[in-house]
């Protein structure tokens, strides 16, 4: 079992973030957590059911910021999910930080796409079992 309970990112516009995250998580088969509320929305299992991903306005009332060097990687089941994730992100207000594919500085089986959400938070979607001939 993962030691990570949840990850939370601050967002400035919850409705805009919902459009983005509903779309990208749908490509990976994730749905909103049943524990979501109007201001604290999550995807994945319920709070005690394993690692989940949450968004909300920052609790201190200050604007959200994206960390330089911070990134959250999401697991894909195949290359098609990585491509769909990247496409959904771009369609729903995100920007590309690297199109789907392998990278020369990683092993050849590491198939990944990088995006930024509408607040600038960096996400990766990774499939670890890519076969070059696929």
List its traits.
alpha/beta; 2,3-Dihydroxybiphenyl 1,2-Dioxygenase, domain 1; 134 residues; 7 strands; 4-stranded mixed β-sheet; single chain; 2 helices
- The coarse overall form would be globular
Largest sheet: 4 strands, mixed
CATH architectural group: Roll
Uncertain segments: none
- Going across the biggest sheet, name each strand in turn: 4-7-6-5
CATH topology: 2,3-Dihydroxybiphenyl 1,2-Dioxygenase, domain 1
Helix vs. strand class: alpha/beta
Question: Level of helix content?
Answer: 10-25%
Please tell me how large the radius of gyration is.
15 Å
Number of helices: 2
What is the class in the CATH system?
A: Alpha Beta
Query: What is the count of distinct domains?
Result: 1
Number of strands: 7
CATH superfamily: 2,3-Dihydroxybiphenyl 1,2-Dioxygenase, domain 1
| Termini separation | 30 Å
Summary of the model, kept short:
This protein has 134 residues and is of the alpha/beta class. The protein has helices spanning 14-26, 79-91, and strands at residues 6-10, 41-43, 52-56, 72-75, 95-102, 111-116, 122-127. The chain has a single domain, classed as 2,3-Dihydroxybiphenyl 1,2-Dioxygenase, domain 1 (Roll), CATH 3.10.180.
Write the layout of secondary structure elements.
Layout: E1 6-10, H1 14-26, E2 41-43, E3 52-56, E4 72-75, H2 79-91, E5 95-102, E6 111-116, E7 122-127
Parallel strand pairs: 1-3, 4-7
Antiparallel strand pairs: 2-3, 5-6, 6-7
Helix pairs in contact: 1-2
């Amino acid at each position: 079992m993962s030691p990570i309970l949840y990850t939370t990112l601050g967002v400035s516009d919850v409705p805009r973030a919902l459009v983005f995250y509903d779309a990208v998580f749908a490509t990976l088969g994730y749905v909103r957590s049943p524990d979501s509320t109007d201001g604290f929305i999550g995807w994945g299992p319920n709070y005690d059911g394993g690692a989940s991903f949450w968004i909300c306005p920052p609790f201190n009332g200050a604007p959200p910021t994206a960390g330089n060097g911070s990134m959250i990687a999401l697991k894909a089941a195949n290359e098609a999910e990585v491509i769909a994730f990247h496409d959904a992100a771009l369609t729903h207000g995100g920007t590309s930080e690297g199109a789907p594919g392998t990278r020369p500085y990683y092993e050849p089986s590491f198939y990944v796409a990088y995006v930024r959400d509408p607040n600038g938070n960096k996400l990766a979607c990774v499939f670890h079992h890519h076969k070059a001939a696929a």
